[in-house]
Amino acid sequence: MEGRQLLVTTNQNWPFFRIAEWDNNDTVIGVSGIDLSIIRALAHTLNFTFRLVRPPDGKWGSLQRDGTITGLIGQVARHEAHLALCELTITSSRESVVDFTVPYYMESTTLVSPAPKEKNRAFAVFSPFTLKVWICLCAVTCGMGPLLRILTRFLVTLLHYPDLHHYNTSVLCFNVFRNLMIQSSVFRPEVWVLRFPFFFWYLFCFYIYALYSGTLTAVLAAPTYETPIETLSDLEAAHSRGFTIATTRDSSFEHAFKSARSGIYREVWQLFDHNDRSISFLPAPEDGFDLINSLVKATQRSLRRFHISRHTFLPQNYGVACPSGSPYQPLFSNVLRRMTEGGLILKWAGEEVNKAVAPHHTQGASHTHTDTTTTTTLTPLNLQHLQAAFFLLVFGVTLGGLVMCTEMITTPRRRSTNTTTTRRMV
């Protein structure tokens, strides 16, 4: 190419392109990035120089309904730049106005959301079982005493067994509760009609106690976290909890959801804020945090602050955009193919991601030992873990006080009624 200077349009989009600008002379200088390494390699191989420019609107660009073309794609389509290189996804809409080289990078989209918060363990004593299980346990415990009372009445009335004092309903109910708390039984059934129910009740209580104590120990020993956002189907629930679904405006991400006529992509599109587009459609990834973003950008986020979904979708192919019919497109494609086959682009991508990961490791080095110690050493239970137990105690005492007040109110009435009845009998 005999040292010709080409205009390369790009955007601030690290790790693909990091640029610096000087407003006094509109100079754009490339600092680092995967695409910067690519354009430098192309320039060295094909013998040309380049000068970086930026689109006035700062968009990646696409063909609009009114026929206008925005962003990087618009500059190339209008021959204001020789090529565009900035994580440009190859789409059918863009290919209708510019020519793309062969894809030099492929990745999938993932969901990046704030790291799940630790669940409140204030009522951890109730966490081993679900609400339905607790209701069933209460129902079985309350019903077991009356059931045994019916059996004893059957023994006394029909089979003429002696009516023992521990056949009382209150004694039977209290004994059932003692068994559930793994306490010794004060009731010794003398007949097989009662031995079988009590035997299997003991097994039931032991099984419930083992499950409860084991699960409670695990809950208190290891923290549990809220369910993270893993799939596109989870976005609706996240949106109802106040999350904002966002992505880069005029990008391939927006186009993919916008062009969908049905299915999950269409459902996600309806979750975006279309009344105020500045909330859901960001000018650039650096202007806000995107729930929907590329996997490379996701890996540079701190894992302490964000959760990266293991599920991926919407595969993306990145290419260099050239004007339609450009003679440089075959040359660029040939060199890009050789770089891709040689593993250079993956090498540059790894280096850029490591630049972001290394500072996090350096800053977190002092915390590594502390975190390891925390996970391997048992920590004492604090008041937050056990406040539900104190709540139950206070509830029981309060309930007893209410019963006492009720009896204080009703007892004088009973005495006056009994006195009146006695006088009438006399």
TrEMBL record:
The main location is: membrane
Q: Which intervals hold domain Ionotropic glutamate receptor L-glutamate and glycine-binding?
A: 15-78
Molecular function, one GO term: ligand-gated monoatomic ion channel activity
One Pfam family here: Lig_chan-Glu_bd
Q: Which UniProt keywords apply?
A: Cell membrane, Coiled coil, Glycoprotein, Ion channel, Ion transport, Ligand-gated ion channel, Membrane, Receptor, Transmembrane, Transmembrane helix, Transport
The listed locations are: Cell membrane
The Ionotropic glutamate receptor C-terminal domain is annotated at 5-350
Q: Which GO cellular component does the record give, naming just one?
A: plasma membrane
Which residue windows are transmembrane per the record?
129-152, 192-212, 386-405
Topology of the protein relative to the lipid bilayer: Multi-pass membrane protein
- Alphabetical GO biological process terms: detection of stimulus involved in sensory perception
Q: Which InterPro entries match?
A: Glu/Gly-bd, Insect_Ionotropic_Sensory_Rcpt, Iontro_rcpt_C
Stretch forming the signal peptide: none
Q: Return the similarity comment.
A: Belongs to the glutamate-gated ion channel (TC 1.A.10.1) family.
- The name this protein carries in UniProt is Uncharacterized protein
